Amino acid sequence: MGKIKNLLAAAIFVLVSVANVSATAVAFQLIQHDPVQDKVRSSSYIIENGLFDYFFDKGFIVTNSPTSVSSDSVQDEEIYYTALSDASAGYCDYFIVISIDYNTENSRNPDAMILSNIEKVNWSVFDLETGKKIGSGSRKIGRIDPVKDNEKGISAFTAQVANDIFSFFKKKS
């Protein structure tokens, strides 16, 4: 009888402990602005995966809408509002919209997965409970060391962007 009480007490303790634990849920939407491509670039997928992994490793529940290509502000809004609706319906706490601007006009290899094809990345972070924007930012690529003009360079750049975005969550805590 004593063992059953101990097991029951332990089970109740575990249930109460688990019930009080919750993670913050964040949803992403990446929008690719690219005058020469109408499909999502591999570079955009690297950025998407890097952001996803970064926030997951920080303890967030992470979800995202598929990365989309947009050619104008009307398409941007359509993509944005669809993803925002999905994030709200999915009970996410935060919504992050990220635009990746490509410029391959002077590229030595416009179709390649290289950092120099990306001009800049912009983001906005929204608190879905209040509906308010809690932050935004941008990071330009600038001059690139040829050794870093590759997939690893894109990943390193993405880590910087993720850290910039994460700083808004640190301020909120």
- Summarize the main sheet: 6 strands, mixed
Output mean pLDDT.
89
Tell me the total number of β-strands: 6
**Category from helices, strands and their pairing:** alpha/beta
The rough form would be described as: globular
Reading the helices and strands in chain order gives HEHEEHEEEH
Q: How many separate helices?
A: 4
Strand content: 25-35%
Give me the Rg, rounded.
Answer: 20 Å
The level of helicity is 40-55%
Given as residue ranges, the uncertain stretches (5+ residues, pLDDT < 50) are 5-11, 13-20
What is the distance, rounded to the nearest whole angstrom, between the alpha carbons of the first and last residues? 46 Å
Please tell me about this protein's structure.
The protein has 173 residues and is α/β, with parallel strands linked by helices. It is 42% helix and 25% strand. It contains four helices and six strands, in the order αβαββαβββα. The chain has helices spanning 2-19, 42-57, 73-89, 151-172, and strands spanning 25-33, 61-64, 68-70, 94-102, 118-127, 132-140. Strands 1, 2, 3, 4, 5 and 6 form a six-stranded mixed β-sheet that branches. Helix 2 (42-57) runs parallel beside helix 4. It is globular.
